[in-house]
């Protein structure tokens, strides 16, 4: 099946509005957040309209319905990523999921498999979003473990030439992004996971830019922990997923403590409920979970493979058009080899913020700046870039609008 992006756009109410005095909305910023189909908006509002109650607690019909919806959403997530249902933890975002695992490791007492100390190593990469860098910096600072990283080549790929020395016998955690939000690079997980497991390290995958765009099966990838956000996968804001292998979640200490995450409590101590509850203190993001369930069902109905194919075709088209523009430099891989639909670029001496504002005046939404990846920007020798990121509702017409907007900007700023 080929994907009918024009039909898909009809499912998204936002595409019925216009931008900047009647212009068609050309939304090329799904890497930051995706738009939402009607089914997701209704699932979230129906939760409040029809079923609202605190899950897992009340002995009444609404509480039962709310619990069924919430736990049903967990099952949908588990099926979507090839996990067991009790391995799926709801958080408020990917940022919280990554903080959860890093902070929880920092809470691990001596004797716990996650306890870190001086002499232990944490490995990241130079292409991490700050959300998958700073929590590990903080964990290193708290525990005395050292932080090292894979560098990025000028083409925007991970330099794995030192794989065996960077991931070594002292490495306890390897945390990396599946797909770079800046470069679009898809990282070669197989060899990294294999090496990490050889030395007994766990692999934490930031899948924010991959789960919404391609088939990600945690079992097939053989990773240990994973994080992604609902809002980049046509789901609501305020909901993220933290996934971990069951036996690892069993040993990982909690992050937040309080109601719902306990087994027993006395005045002096408490024991923890098994995962996922151990990691879901308090009344959780129930309406948002309902929305996320609807989002993943929506993506499944269209077919994640179809979405991926559509994005590959569009990215190929856009890369070719952008490459033909004088003075436009793509920051990241220029071919489709292991690459997704985020394309960052610089354009002569036009500052990305000026370009972004100019494109916005034409109804074209792109992202400009450092994209929460300062070290990567420095490594690539840029202060900021303009980023176009594609999704299932984008068309060749959107790509053409971007190209003609860029050419108009060239004429405008040359005056
Ligand atoms: C690769 C990557 N990791 C982590 C995040 C953080 O996601 P959130 O802001 O939804 O927590 C983002 C968001 O842009 C991202 O692109």
Which short descriptors sum up this protein?
seven-stranded mixed β-sheet; binds pyridoxal-5'-phosphate; 14 helices; single chain
Structural class: alpha/beta
Average pLDDT score: 97
Q: How many strands, what sense, and barrel or not for the largest sheet?
A: 7 strands, mixed
Largest sheet strand order: 4-10-9-8-7-5-6
Q: What coarse outline follows from CA principal-axis ratios? A: globular
Number of helices: 14
Helix proportion:
25-40%
List ligands, each type once: pyridoxal-5'-phosphate
Task: Write structural notes for this entry.
This protein is of the alpha/beta class and 415 residues long. 38% of the residues lie in helices and 16% in strands. The chain has helices at 5-10, 38-51, 61-81, 94-106, 134-143, 163-166, 189-198, 218-221, 246-251, 286-302, 304-323, 352-360, 374-379, 396-414; strands at residues 18-19, 23-24, 26-27, 88-91, 121-125, 146-150, 171-177, 202-206, 225-229, 240-244, 262-265, 270-272, 328-330, 342-347, 364-365, 367-369, 385-389. Strands 4-10-9-8-7-5-6 form a 7-stranded mixed β-sheet, sandwiched between helices. Strand 7, helix 7 and strand 8 form a beta-alpha-beta unit. Helix 3 packs across helix 10 (286-302). The N and C termini lie far apart (47 Å). Bound molecules: pyridoxal-5'-phosphate.
């Amino acid at each position: 099946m080929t994907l009918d992006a024009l039909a898909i756009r009809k499912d998204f109410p936002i595409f019925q509005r216009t931008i900047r005095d009647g212009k068609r909305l050309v939304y090329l910023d799904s890497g930051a957040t995706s738009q939402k189909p009607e089914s997701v908006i209704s699932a979230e509002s129906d939760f409040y309209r029809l079923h609202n109650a605190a899950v897992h607690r009340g002995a009444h019909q609404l509480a039962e319905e709310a619990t069924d919806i919430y736990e049903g959403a967990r099952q949908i997530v588990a099926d979507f990523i090839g996990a067991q249902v009790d391995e799926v933890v709801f958080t408020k975002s990917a940022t919280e999921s990554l903080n959860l695992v890093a902070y929880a490791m920092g809470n691990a007492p001596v004797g716990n498999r996650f306890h870190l100390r001086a002499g232990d190593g944490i490995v990241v990469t130079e292409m991490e979003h700050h959300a998958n860098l700073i929590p590990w910096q903080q964990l290193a600072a708290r525990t005395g473990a050292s932080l090292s990283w894979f560098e990025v080549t000028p083409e925007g790929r991970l330099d794995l030439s030192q794989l065996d020395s960077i991931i070594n016998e002292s490495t306890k955690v390897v945390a990396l992004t599946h797909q770079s939000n800046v470069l679009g690079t898809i990282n070669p997980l197989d060899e990294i996971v294999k090496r990490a497991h050889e030395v007994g390290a766990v692999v934490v995958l930031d899948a924010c830019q991959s789960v919404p765009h391609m088939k990600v099966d945690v079992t097939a990838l053989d990773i240990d922990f994973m994080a992604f956000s609902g809002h980049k996968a046509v789901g609501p804001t305020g909901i993220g997923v933290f996934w971990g292998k069951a036996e690892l979640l069993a040993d990982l200490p909690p992050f937040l403590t309080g109601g719902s995450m306990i087994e027993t409590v006395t005045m002096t101590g408490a024991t923890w409920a098994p995962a996922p509850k151990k990691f879901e203190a308090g009344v959780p993001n129930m309406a948002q979970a309902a929305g996320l369930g609807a989002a993943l069902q929506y993506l499944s109905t269209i077919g994640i493979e179809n979405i991926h194919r559509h994005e590959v075709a569009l990215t190929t088209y856009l890369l070719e058009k952008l490459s033909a523009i004088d003075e436009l430099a793509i920051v990241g891989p220029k071919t489709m080899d292991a690459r997704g639909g985020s394309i960052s670029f610089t354009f002569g001496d036009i500052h990305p913020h000026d370009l972004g504002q100019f494109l916005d005046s034409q109804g074209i939404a792109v992202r400009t700046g450092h994209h929460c990846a300062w070290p990567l920007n420095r490594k690539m020798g840029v202060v900021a870039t303009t980023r176009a990121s594609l999704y299932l509702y984008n068309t060749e017409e959107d790509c053409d609008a971007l190209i003609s907007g860029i050419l108009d900007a060239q004429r405008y700023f040359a005056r």
